[in-house]
Give the backbone structure.
Amino acid sequence: MSDCCDVVIAGAAIIDIPVVPADASVFTRISTPAGRIILTSGGDAMNEALVLSRLGKRVRLITRIGCDDAGAYLRRTCDASGIDTRHFREIDGLDTGVNVVLVDHSGERRFFTNPHGSLRALEMGDITQDALDGAKIFCFASIFVFPLIGPAELEQLFRSVRERGLITCADMTLPKHGETLADLAPALRYLDYFFANLAEAQQITGMTSPSAVADALLDTGARHVIIKLGANGCLIADKTGHRHIPACPAANCIDTTGAGDNFAAGFLSALLDGRSFEGCAQYANACASVSVETVGASTGVTDAAQVLKRFHSAYPDC
């Protein structure tokens, strides 16, 4: 396998078991028939890696799994997609994470997670310098998932990646221990691209409007900020100003699980293709809109032609 790759993704790789549809009424009955129950791969980094590989990019994935059947399934899935798994850490006695995903009639989801499995197990020592060799982009997915990688560790990580000359990116989830923007600012100043959905960004900045949130994040020194707005598309911001990028209309929203991960993967793919900041956001919206039309976080996107068709349909002037 070549040492060169387009993107290195670090984060969680787990098993997802989506149940569609599911709501609170399931607890009033002993047995409830569902439209679909499947087993698929999941986790922020795994989702991004799979989608990027289907878009024709060379991907290296850094993650932790257990020495169990679930971990073997994830490795086989990556191998079948051409994802470089040489920097997987298999830990004896660690359960590979399994999430049960309850998806309601509107496509929104709720998770049962195992916090003691591999979902939150990544450590700084797993992201080695040789794992970055030959790469163009590094993406950390996601801030606040891993208890042993806090703001101080992120600052060290992002600084070292930037010093290697890689484009440095990160996504985030909701803070778990009251972390604020002041805590994260020393790390965010090393980011070229920072992704967050509006609720996450509001919580760490204390701001309400997307524009105010974006300004607060830019003030840390992050070069480009992307605020994901769900069905309203996204807001992108850099030193030249703000632009709202409307969403691509999805034909039928079935499952929003992993939509943000698909968005990030689409953005990184477009960045590698040399698209503008606005063009990357549009392509990311297209990728996310395709993803919500099927059950499972990484099952919707099959290839670049599929996403390009949606992209050109939604943004005909591009």
Remarks:
- The radius of gyration is 18 Å.
